[in-house]
Amino acid sequence: MYGPAVHQFPFATQAIGSPSVKTSLRDDVYLTLAAPPDHPGGTAVIGVIVQPMIAWLWIGGGVVALGTLLAAWPGRRRRPTAPVSAPVEVDTVPAEPVAVPQ
Q1: What is the value of pTM for the model shown?
Q2: pLDDT in tens, 27-82
Q3: SS3 annotation, 16-28
Q4: What does the alpha-carbon distance between residue 27 and residue 32 come to, in Å, rounded to a whole number?
Q5: Residue 33: other Cβ atoms inside 10 A
Q6: Bridge partners of residue 16, in order along the sequence
Q7: Are 32 and 47 a contacting pair, CB within 8 Å?
Q8: In 3D, which of 21, 25, 69 has the Cα closest to residue 47?
Q9: What is the secondary structure of 35-78 as a DSSP string?
């Protein structure tokens, strides 16, 4: 339920608006009370702002932070003497010489 309001604080010269925000995975909806009604039952002016997919910015930031932690955490390393791949057969017959033009 929305509840935007305009508050008048003591010793303040202007009224201060408090928006009402509804957040979901799809979008954020901000409602502001721009002008309250002059008398009971009068017309109020309400501002509406819809910002799509704001929650996904926070979720993406969390994924990036998690990836950073995983990348920074030291993992198991190979020993320099450990074989990296299967043995490679080496030809014992030398290749034919290639003539280089001069």
Answers
A1: 0.56
A2: 999 998 888 888 888 998 889 999 999 999 999 999 999 999 988 887 776 666 66
A3: EEECEEEECCCEE
A4: 16
A5: 21
A6: 7
A7: yes
A8: 21
A9: E--SSTT---EEEEEEEETHHHHHHHHHHHHHHHHHHHS-----
